[in-house]
Write a structure and sequence with these properties.
Blueprint (H helix, E strand, L loop, with lengths): L1 H9 L2 H16 L4 E4 L5 H18 L5 H19 L6 E3 L4 E4 L4 H22 L4 H32 L13
Antiparallel strand pairs: 1-3, 2-3
């Protein structure tokens, strides 16, 4: 128990703020909603920024780590593209609105990435001799998550562009 308390007390405050942000964004995704188109960029933007920050902090020390990030990005993109469900999504291009079905996917994926990165950070602090391997794993998790969420965004935007249009103004106000 002392180790858990020591780990939590050594965790920077922004990690808890990031966890709260991810939970908040994930909970919003649980129920169906109508949103303005720019809003669907928020979650992928968070994960892309997080991935690029992880990459930039480690790339100077090990330039070959960029390859690990790119490979993981492509794997994540394949996973995100193949698992993105488009049934139920409706678009109103005239008003810039999109109806999104609710689901657990974003919450589960976000918390999984957070848990993996947190576990890697704790392990790096406890096992300094594993630093190089942990850095590669951390960057790979970042690339995987960025690719996953970017592919889901890309698939949604393509659907938005090419699907038939409906009038979403009668369904409710966008958030």
């Amino acid at each position: 128990m002392n180790l858990v308390i020591a780990i939590l007390s050594a965790t920077p405050w922004w990690v808890f703020a990031l966890l709260a942000l991810l939970v908040g964004l994930g909970v919003q995704q649980l129920r169906p909603r109508i949103v303005r188109l720019p809003r669907i960029v928020v979650v992928p933007g968070v994960f892309l920024a997080w991935g690029l920050i992880a990459l930039s902090t480690r790339a100077a020390a090990a330039p070959d780590i960029i390859l690990a990030w790119l490979v993981a990005l492509m794997l994540g993109a394949g996973l995100g593209w193949s698992t993105m469900r488009l049934d139920g999504i409706r678009v109103d291009r005239r008003r810039g609105l999109i109806y999104l079905t609710g689901g657990w996917t974003v919450l589960v994926a976000s918390l999984s990435v957070f848990a993996a990165k947190y576990a890697l950070a704790v392990t790096a602090a406890l096992r300094l001799q594993w630093h190089a391997a942990i850095a590669i794993a951390d960057v790979a998790v970042s690339g995987l998550s960025a690719g996953y969420f970017l592919a889901r965004l890309a698939r949604t935007l393509i659907w938005y562009r090419h699907s038939s249009e409906v009038d979403l103004a009668i369904a409710g106000q966008p958030r």
